[in-house]
Design a protein that fits this description.
heterodimer, A: 351 residues, Rossmann fold, eight-stranded mixed β-sheet, 45% helix, B: 280 residues, alpha/beta
């Protein structure tokens, strides 16, 4: 049973959402879920992830609310029209939609009579839930999916774009992807048009080709006589400079944290602060990471905030799982299943 | 209902709609009362187009018309799962949305407005019954081309994840032929949907269209080349069709660098066309 609902945030904006209720009221449990949207996306989420989560949970007896933050989707409020998307991300990563999430938790509690709440979401939804938790007295736990641990800004984005080729040298593993994506453009008429009109910037492709060429050269060089090897090295040094091997994905090892500090990334100190507040209140936290995002999570947060004995962390209600071969939106079938299971497992523990 | 979301029936399922009541306008559009029904684009494009369609609906009702947005079966907040839907079922949805909009507004005249594949669906729906005035914003004209673009998106996503080129588009088509779905950014594209999309050919379907129509090309810069495909479509539709273009800094259906919630030139083009609807 799904019904359109609206409620008011602390600024007086009317927020629109969908409340998912069990079809049979007799099966309704005493815990509810607020599933929060990621960033500036509307309340259905990528591939209707939020709809799928809410339907599964409602079928399991858990009233679930998903809604649009103010100014987004159908909800009232300042739309932040014209703002750089990266700055909007930064706003969310600083708790910008905390009040809306608090209002949602209060609404779900009042509307359905649930005793405890689980808050969860992907990316911007995950962090918004952590921020909201300290203002809601009945939060049992969190499902935190690909928690953003750096702070976004348009200036940082500009830096990354303007130095993309240089930064690729610190992540040579990405080279094949870059080349493959450019090769796909060979069949794209629009890409050819942009190339011929001078709109395209192919410096990233050039750098990728240089890295690949250097890798080939490194395979041949050891087989050359030493004098010839030295000559080739000298001649090609400026054209094909050596590439340092890429750092392995970070494990729970603080020594690797420094290696994850890719130029331009800025740690969001608020994340650790709010996480400590949440666990100090006895709320449980289940982190779920995509394999593609896990190294960043560990480098900027996990290696410090989750250090120590895993058993002790578990005893405090903190768990971390990594879903292999998974992108940030968990769009593949196996990652969708893992996401659903994580949410269901957390809610199953709630009183 | 009035400026709030509501579920409404469509056969055995419910669809989510959002009806915008007309405002007391200082400069109302000089046309007979009407309700503009908006049809959203396909898959993830629906998400990114949402602010623009909401803004268009708001602007229309600010000029004295009714407006309605709704989600197709298996899309947005509507009931059902994406993979259950077909092009045919989506056309049923549009008919149901029009009926609901008429009943709620008390206004008989419907104007259909769609974006991208939503425009294509609006066009197909308008040929089922009495032809309605049609506003087509960047419509998908040829389904054969568009269906390949959709599969291309799958391949790009796979490459980013696996760092290598995996299957080819031909292999994906073969997979669909064998009755297997293809996961495109989490949406399970079915063979029936794929075939339904491929069958779209608006130039043929809308030839000599008997009602008024707007074909709106959206370009990034004033000097951008006009779309030959949209020009051919407008020409095929006949004298009732108006081809125009709007310059917008970012596409209306993919996330850009700037968070835009309205498309002013598109709004002006749509309102300008609506103003002319009752003129001879």
């Amino acid at each position: 049973m799904e019904k359109a609902v609206r409620f008011t945030n602390e600024k007086g904006n009317t927020l629109h959402g969908i409340l998912h209720l069990p079809d049979d009221p007799a099966t309704t449990r005493s815990a509810g879920l607020v599933w929060l949207s990621a960033g500036q996306k509307v309340r259905q989420g990528a591939w209707r992830m939020n709809v799928a989560v809410a339907r599964r949970l409602a079928a399991a007896g858990i009233p679930t609310l998903r809604f649009d933050y103010r100014g987004i989707g159908d909800s009232e409020g300042e739309g932040r029209h014209g703002e750089m998307v990266m700055d909007l991300y930064g706003f969310i990563q600083s708790g910008g939609f905390r009040g809306d999430a608090v209002a949602a938790g209060q609404f779900l509690t009042a509307e359905t009579g649930v005793k405890s709440l689980v808050l969860g979401g992907l990316c911007g939804g995950a962090i918004t839930g952590l921020f909201a938790a300290t203002a809601l007295p009945n939060v049992f736990g969190h499902v935190v999916v690909d928690l953003p641990v750096t702070i976004s800004s348009s200036s940082r984005q500009r830096y990354l774009e303007e130095n993309a080729a240089e930064l690729l040298r610190s992540r040579p593993g990405e080279t094949d992807t870059v080349i493959a994506l450019y090769l796909k453009k060979l069949t794209d008429a629009g890409a050819w048009r942009r190339l011929l009109s001078g709109e395209s910037d192919y410096s990233l492709l050039l750098e990728a080709a240089r890295i690949k060429s250097r890798a080939q050269l490194d395979r041949v060089l050891p087989h050359l006589p030493a004098p010839l090897r030295a000559l080739v090295e000298r001649l090609l040094l400026s054209v094909l400079p050596p590439v340092e091997p890429e750092a392995p994905p970070a494990q729970v090892d603080p020594s690797l944290a420094a290696q994850m500090q890719v130029a331009g990334e800025v740690k969001n100190d608020l994340v650790e602060e709010v996480f400590q507040q949440v666990i100090a209140r006895g709320q449980r936290v289940r982190f779920v990471n995509s394999s593609s995002y896990h190294p960043t999570f560990m480098g900027y947060f996990g290696n410090t905030a989750l250090r120590g004995d895993p058993a002790r962390l578990r005893s405090r209600g903190v768990e971390l799982s990594v879903v292999p071969e998974t992108n940030h939106i968990f769009s593949l079938e196996h990652s969708q299943r893992a996401l659903f299971e994580a949410v269901e497992a957390m809610v199953a523990q709630a009183p | 209902m009035g400026d709030r979301g509501e579920f409404f029936p469509c056969g055995s399922r419910r669809l989510y709609g959002f009806l915008h009541e007309p405002r007391a306008a200082e400069t109302p559009l000089a046309i007979a009362p009407a309700v503009v029904v908006f049809v959203h684009p396909f898959m993830e494009e629906r998400q990114d187009a949402h602010p623009f369609l909401r803004s268009l609906a708001t602007r229309v009702c600010a000029r004295g018309l009714w407006a309605m947005r709704f989600d197709l079966h298996g899309c947005g907040d509507s009931e059902g799962e994406w993979e259950e839907a077909t092009v045919e079922s989506w056309l049923d949805d549009i008919a149901a949305a029009c009926d609901f909009a008429r009943a709620q507004s008390g206004v008989g005249r419907v104007i259909l407005c769609g974006l991208r594949f939503g425009a294509s669906l609006a066009a197909l729906a308008s040929t089922r019954g009495e032809p309605a005035p049609l506003a087509l914003i960047q419509p998908v004209v040829k389904g054969t081309t568009y269906s390949m673009d959709v599969l291309r998106a799958y391949l790009a996503a796979e490459m980013v994840l696996t760092r290598k080129a995996g299957v080819t588009r031909d292999a994906l088509v073969e997979r669909l032929r064998l009755g297997q779905n293809v996961n495109v950014f989490g949406y399970q594209l079915t063979a029936a949907q794929f075939d339904g999309v491929r069958a779209v050919d608006l130039t043929r379907t809308l030839a000599d269209y008997p009602a008024r129509a707007l074909v709106l090309d959206v370009v990034k810069t004033p000097t951008a080349r006009a779309s030959n495909e949209l020009a051919a479509l407008a020409a095929a539709m006949g004298a009732g069709a108006t081809l125009t273009r709007a310059v917008e800094p970012q596409p209306l259906y993919v996330e850009g660098k700037v968070h835009l919630t309205r498309a002013e030139q598109v709004e002006l083009a749509l309102l300008g066309w609506l103003e002319t609807l009752d003129q001879p």
